[in-house]
Predict the structure.
Amino acid sequence: MASLLAVAFALPGTQTGRSAVLTRRGAVGALVAAAAPVAVSADGANSKATVDKARAIYGSRVVRLASASPEAIIEDQNAITLFISGAYRAGPNGNTQDKAISKQLLALKKTALDGAKSGDAAKAQGALKEMIAIAKLTEQDGYDGNYNPKQRRNPGAPPTEAIVAQMGSEAYALYDRYDARSAGAPQKK
């Protein structure tokens, strides 16, 4: 890094006999060039919060796929990949247990997708149910979950149950819109 900075800030030779001056544009360009390798390196850190979020969002989608048609499984196969890579770190920062579970889940994913592509719903759904059992998945992005995409709350906001408890009879408004034509009954989408 020091040698890169030394080369970046080296003043060009003079061609007209005047002393060399480092311009503002040259200095900014040199700083950007020197900082570029630093900005690209990421450690791939994974916290408990990111694992919980992956389990809630993508794990819930995997739970719903367990009873889906083969076409739906193929269409939403990225949810399975995102669940495995987000909840079970198998990279250099992952722990040994996560790597072992990740291998099992990847094998089950392959079985499920092979079954779905061949039109064998029982094979695909069986592999997904086994995946759900190994990962101990439940549907967490519904009314009780903090990662319901309909809520769009800020990170650090109170948990869903605290907000629902404060809303009383208007708790449905957190998820459904109010329709005056049906005397305030929550609308299902």
Notes: Residues 38-43 have pLDDT under 50 and may be disordered.
